[in-house]
Amino acid sequence: MAEVAIRNVRKSFGAIEVLHGVSVDIADGEFVVLVGPSGCGKSTLLRMVAGLEKITAGEVAIEGHPINDLPPKDRNIAMVFQNYALYPHMTVRENIGFPLRMAGTAPEEVARRVERAADTLGLKPLLDRHPRHLSGGQRQRVAMGRAIVRQPAAFLFDEPLSNLDAQLRAQMRTELKELLQTLGTTALYVTHDQVEAMTMADRVVVMRDGVIEQIGTPLDLYDRPVNTFVARFIGLPSMNLLPGIVLAESGTILIDDGTALPCPAATWLPMENIVFGFRSETLAIDDTEGIPARVAVIEPMGGQTQVLFKFGSRDIVGTFSARIAVKVGQQVRLRPDMTLAHFFDAASGRRLDGGPPQSALA
Amino acid sequence: MILLQRLEKVLLAVCIVVVVAVAVTPLAWMMLTSLKPSLIAVASPPQILFTPTLEHYIALFSGGDAGSTLGLAFVNSIVVTAVSMLLTIAIACPAAYALSRLRPAGTASLTVFIIGVRMLPPIVLVVPLFRFLQPLGLNDTYLALLVPYVGLSIPLAVWMLIGFFQNLPRELEEAAMIDGCGRLGAFWHVILPLAAPGMAATSIFTGLLAWNDLVFSLPLTTTRAVTMPVIAARMRVEEGVLWGQLGAVSTIMIVPVILLTFFVQRHIVSGIASGAVKG
């Protein structure tokens, strides 16, 4: 167990810089998820911590010791790959025991620890099989086994669940979280799936184009996204975002079609042109007031119903816990709870808050 | 529809029979010749029915000097072929791995240069090699044969193995390096075992080159290092060609090749079937 410090790390491939100075401090035992669209540099960052990519500038330290120049084998980390990277010519037992054997551990000790890891992961009946005879979920567990067996300072995960089908992924997500809670080992986890990030992480690092957009707990990101990118990226369904013009005198926000939505924040918002956002669950259907919209798609999910509305050419998504009585094609009025709305600068996309500017978050 | 399917099957069977016949007929002919009495060995039209005789084999093995030479040549061929295969793999594997993974500067031109060596007609090398080996007293030794066999095999072996290494997922060695190996350890523990089918396939080419070669073995060996093809060539005597004995030598030569093919083929097939390179 150890803390991992990433300080102003940059990465260039030739003349192209893909990471532009990234800093994250991961506390001992913390589970941090790096999330972002493909190409944002999250995997590159993870591979630099692993020692599989050279660090162009900046520093990575584990337990306070800089590890920039250490080869991967001396970093005391374990990694789980997207395609599991199990050694095809070795049995499950040999796969899990491989790091121990490479470390020169005594055979009896290897056997004991492999058994224990296999026990933890429910792999005991499979120990003598080869990876090609395992299902995706089983391979995933073996990869986990190979990582936990050596009790490393930190775990690194590179999209470990993305090769699994949806149901198995949800199940493994829970198992993995439980396992990591039990082990209490520091973990850095890369995914492009914001649901994984939200559900598993102690803290989430949202990245885009080689920079960190925001670091925070899952609910921080959900409740206070620092810009429209994070607002759109975190949460499922995405936050609804609409452009509007602030009319401070009347305390309303004017939207596309000229409808004025009453909004308490209109009095302090520092500019006219804004984008305001509201989560799908803060939306209510009204007969007389609100955004005029047409019901386009109804997606019943049992416990709740998700409805896609069309407001002009814009999409608005609402989720309703009650089974609502609307029909496709019906014209309705939508009333977002404006006291829970988020406001962003229309030009820069930055979050606008009441009171002093929160520059520390940006 | 069923008729059409059946017709398809029959046609397929006919094709298979034709292909097998084309492959097997020369071998069968050769073996039959080795068993025919000398008088009818080259009779035209060929005589299908005859009383088989072992006279050519007996003549080969009992022919005093010739007999002991045959035994020596067989051992020589085995040794030279085996050592060529081992040396080629030992040299080509690390080279191919380096070219496929580390991609040092100039990799592209280097690989083209390597395959360029392969385009050299072997006969071009014979005279210089002879002149080079003679003052060193290396003519008529294993080394005289190993140098050209290994030298000519490496280019093709490197090329074939580059393909195999490139097909192995990078994550496997990355996992190995994180699991406590250096690059060499990852190569040894993970990459080499997985490249075994590739090495087997590559070995066949080297093995066949060394086993069948006459271009180098005829001029570069005389007594101590003679190989089987040289013995076969010696079946052409002043009185003509000893067809029966030539057939016998060839039949003896073919046995290890068939054994090797069976052995190595199993490895290739098992390697492919296991999905060793699937993630």
Query: Helix content range of the residues of chain A, please?
Result: 10-25%
Give the name of the CATH superfamily of the largest domain in chain A: P-loop containing nucleotide triphosphate hydrolases
The interface involving the most residues is between: A-B, 26 and 23 residues
The end-to-end distance of chain A, rounded to whole angstroms, is 30 Å
From the spread of the alpha carbons, the general shape of chain A counts as elongated
Task: Enumerate the strands of the largest sheet of chain B in spatial order, edge to edge or round the barrel.
Answer: 1-2
Give the CA-CA distance, first to last residue of chain B: 41 Å
Q: Estimate nothing, just give the exact number of structural domains of chain A.
A: 2
Q: How many β strands of chain A by DSSP?
A: 21
Domain ABC transmembrane type-1 (chain B): 74-264
InterPro entries (chain B): BP-dep_ABC_trans_perm, MetI-like, MetI-like_sf
Family (chain B): Belongs to the binding-protein-dependent transport system permease family.
GO cellular component, one term (chain B): plasma membrane
Describe the structure.
Chain A: It is a peripheral membrane protein. Chain A: It is found in: Cell inner membrane. The complex is a heterodimer of chains A (362) and B (279). With 362 residues, chain A is an alpha+beta fold. Chain A folds into two domains: 4-229, P-loop containing nucleotide triphosphate hydrolases (Rossmann fold, 3-Layer(aba) Sandwich); 237-354, OB fold (Dihydrolipoamide Acetyltransferase, E2P) (Beta Barrel), CATH 2.40.50.140. In chain A, 23% of the residues lie in helices and 33% in strands. Chain A has eight helices and 21 strands. In chain A, strands 6-7-8-3-9-10 form a six-stranded mixed beta sheet, sandwiched between helices. In chain A, strands 13-12-11-14-20-21 form a six-stranded antiparallel beta sheet. Chain B has 279 residues and is mainly α. Chain B folds into two domains: 1-53, no CATH class; 75-273, MetI-like fold, CATH 1.10.3720. Chain B is 75% helix and 1% strand. Chain B contains twelve helices and two strands, in the order αααααααααααββα. Chain B has helices at 2-35, 55-62, 65-102, 107-119, 123-133, 142-167, 170-178, 183-194, 196-212, 217-220, 228-233, 243-273; strands spanning 236-237, 240-241. Chain B has a two-stranded antiparallel ribbon with strand order 1-2. In chain B, helix 1 crosses helix 12 (243-273) and helix 3 packs antiparallel against helix 9. The longest helix of chain B has 38 residues, at 65-102. The relative contact order of chain B is 0.13. At the A-B interface, strand 6 and helix 2 of A face helix 7 and helix 8 of B.
